[in-house]
Design a protein that fits this description.
This protein has 226 residues and is an all-alpha fold. It is 33% helix and 0% strand. The structure holds heme C (5 copies).
């Protein structure tokens, strides 16, 4: 049979040829790994206006290499995409916005040899020892994390109705965050009565992504750009 080639037929043929490409494009967008490149999980409370590039600094790799690796990641050929032209995220990226003169637990302190054992339990030398991004966790540290360093607590005139010495002896480590925040940056005064301590469940909710039990007021607010 002879088919007459008309301009209309050519157009339909061209459209038919394009279908597999269109389907392919949709399939790539629907792949979870590709969506992760676009929006890699939930963002930290307060980071709504922080740019991806505030944490993911460009390596000096060329744009071409970056796009290529990115594409491989999107197509599932790579385990991760962090080396696709970006440097690993480090504490100094965080500190550019979060450095404070009143820091109660500055990370550099814990590089001292006397903290070697504690740091094996919790890597307090890095923000990423207790925090990350793209999860629904404000901090993934355990509520009992204080145990790593505060095994000897004898306050001269202990103001608390159950003394710190007793709390430590009875290993009541889950109570600490009920009266003290970790960084000391909330305008919150530690209560003196155990009944006024924040319940453990509220602390755990806060360490996930819940509201702050220490109020919303902070002594130092983070910078919004680097
Ligand atoms: C507050 C800092 C911060 C911001 C803002 C941020 N990220 Fe991340 N991102 C991280 C950290 C920390 C990791 C964990 C991997 C690491 O340590 O490098 C990570 C991991 C990733 C990964 C995966 C790497 C892997 O190995 O799985 C991708 C992709 C990514 N981020 C993309 C983005 C995109 C896109 C944005 C903007 C919507 C963004 N990030 C915003 C800190 C950040
Ligand atoms: C470009 C600046 C910027 C960078 C970089 C940045 N942050 Fe933030 N971050 C903010 C701001 C602004 C807020 C919200 C205001 C505040 O909490 O002071 C915030 C909020 C947070 C909060 C939650 C505060 C709360 O009370 O809920 C955590 C936790 C946090 N950042 C950790 C980090 C970590 C860890 C890094 C490094 C991986 C980092 N940030 C990098 C600016 C930044
Ligand atoms: C040993 C674990 C640990 C390390 C290390 C750590 N954090 Fe935290 N961080 C916590 C815990 C627990 C909380 C929740 C209690 C609180 O609000 O202080 C928290 C809360 C925060 C908050 C919200 C409250 C606030 O102070 O504004 C920010 C922001 C924050 N961390 C940033 C950082 C940055 C930046 C670093 C690195 C310089 C870091 N953290 C290192 C455990 C840690
Ligand atoms: C990696 C070790 C480490 C961890 C983990 C740790 N601390 Fe500390 N903390 C210290 C050191 C060191 C000091 C400073 C003590 C000094 O100066 O004598 C300190 C000081 C403090 C202070 C007194 C701050 C001031 O201004 O005098 C409080 C309160 C405190 N920590 C509470 C906590 C609580 C609550 C936790 C658990 C959420 C915790 N710490 C976890 C090492 C740690
Ligand atoms: C009922 C509330 C409460 C609980 C629970 C509590 N503290 Fe305290 N803590 C206080 C008060 C009040 C002070 C006095 C200084 C102040 O106001 O911060 C204090 C002081 C401290 C100090 C400073 C000591 C100094 O020399 O200045 C450290 C460190 C400390 N607490 C750690 C802890 C740890 C670790 C735990 C968990 C075992 C804990 N606290 C549990 C209320 C509490």
């Amino acid at each position: 049979m002879h088919i007459k080639i008309t301009p209309d037929r050519i157009r339909i043929f061209a459209l038919l040829l394009m279908i597999p490409f269109a389907v392919g494009a949709v399939a790539v967008l629907a792949k979870p790994s590709f969506q992760e490149v676009l929006a890699h999980g939930p963002i930290q409370a307060g980071h709504e206006n922080v740019q991806c590039t505030d944490c993911h600094r460009r390596d000096d790799a060329t744009l071409r290499q970056q796009i290529q690796a990115n594409l491989h990641y999107a197509l599932g050929n790579r385990e991760n995409s962090v080396d696709f032209g970006y440097l690993p995220v480090t504490s100094s990226d965080c500190l550019d916005c979060h450095e404070r003169p009143n820091e109660r637990h500055p990370i550099y302190r814990f590089r001292e040899p006397r903290f070697a054992e504690a740091v094996e339990v919790v890597n307090a030398t890095s923000c990423m020892g207790c925090h990350t991004e793209h999860t629904d966790q404000r901090s993934f540290s355990d509520v009992r994390v204080c145990a790593a360093c505060h095994g000897e607590l004898n306050l001269v005139n202990d103001p608390v109705d159950v003394s710190h010495e007793t709390l430590v002896r009875e290993k009541q480590w889950q109570t600490c965050l009920g009266c003290h925040d970790f960084h000391g940056n909330h305008t919150y005064k530690a209560p003196k009565l155990m009944v006024e301590a924040v319940p453990v469940q509220d602390i755990e909710d806060y360490l996930a992504a819940g509201d702050s039990p220490y109020g919303t007021e902070k002594i130092y607010k983070a910078e919004t750009s680097r």
